Amino acid sequence: MHRITHANGVITYTFETLAGLPVRAHVSTRHGGVSPTPWNTLNFSIRRGDAPDRVRKNRLRFAAAAGVNADDVVSAEQVHGTGVARVDWSDAGQRMVGSDGLITDEIGLPLSLVFADCAPVLLYDPRHHTLGASHSGWRGTVNGMPAATLWAMQAAFDTDPADVIAAIGPSIGPESYEVGPEVVAMAHAKLPRADRLFRHPNGPERNPYFDLWQAISGQLIDAGIPEEQIEISGVDTARTTDDFFSHRAERGQCGLFGMLAWLEEKQ
I need a surface site. Which of 48, 177, 220, 228 has the fewest CB within 10 A? Predict the structure, then answer.
């Protein structure tokens, strides 16, 4: 990923694989906002105790850094499910209830999601010039969130998975994500070849570590996206709390970072 320091102090990352394409995506860091500890500083969550006015100012600062109008941003409720909402300009400024994914073919309409260990997943269809963005933690991934976003794009825009360029953003990595028996049981019940997603560095009697990145990319590959068209950022939020919020590493005492993504006019 490419790190950008904006004029207002906001720091974001962009995906290398999208360079030169008519689509933009910025993943925020925790830098450049107005919130105090423990949300320091660019936090987008009210539910974690930060003041609504500070969160509103942070959203305005992120939008300004990215170059979009904050009033146009469409967000998802994010319920750790597999709901995907198709959105257009009539949804500008709205929060889509029951959704963890958003898809659009509207030029310039900014899609917004927030995270603190779960994975930002971006899907771009260059043939039909359409975009999908989703929030995929372990529960959403095991239940098929990445594929659900792709299928929604197929249904709405006739997307061929073979054309899609995918990017998986900063999220908790395989060296940090110790999980309990519920995750193991659900993964084995719902995902093919689930054994490859777990490792036991502390011995077979201890909790395993889950590879969220591989679970997401494997699901997208199985759905038809070529492996070479999937970018995995490799940024482990639990090990980079200087840049990103991590619910696991910070024991829930943190904010949420965000992703803004939108389509540009094709040249």
Answer: 228
* Residue segments in the chain with a per-residue pLDDT below the cut of 70: none
Phi, then psi, of 252 in degrees rounded to 5: 80, -5
* Segments of 159-256 assigned E as strands: 165-168, 198-199, 209-210, 230-232
| pLDDT of amino acid 164 | 98
Among residues 111, 42, 102, the alpha carbon closest in space to that of 72 is found at: 111
Q: Which of 148, 144, 143 is nearest to 133 (CA)?
A: 148
Residues 13-69: pLDDT tens digits?
A: 999 999 999 999 999 999 999 999 999 999 999 988 999 999 999 999 999 999 999
CA dihedral 243, 244, 249, 255 (to 10 degrees): 130
CA-CA distance, 234 to 149, in Å (whole number)? 21
Between the two ends of the chain, the Cα-to-Cα distance in Å is 24
Q: Which domains does the chain have, with CATH numbers?
A: 2-263 (3.60.140.10)
Cα–Cα distance, 101 to 156 (Å, whole number): 14
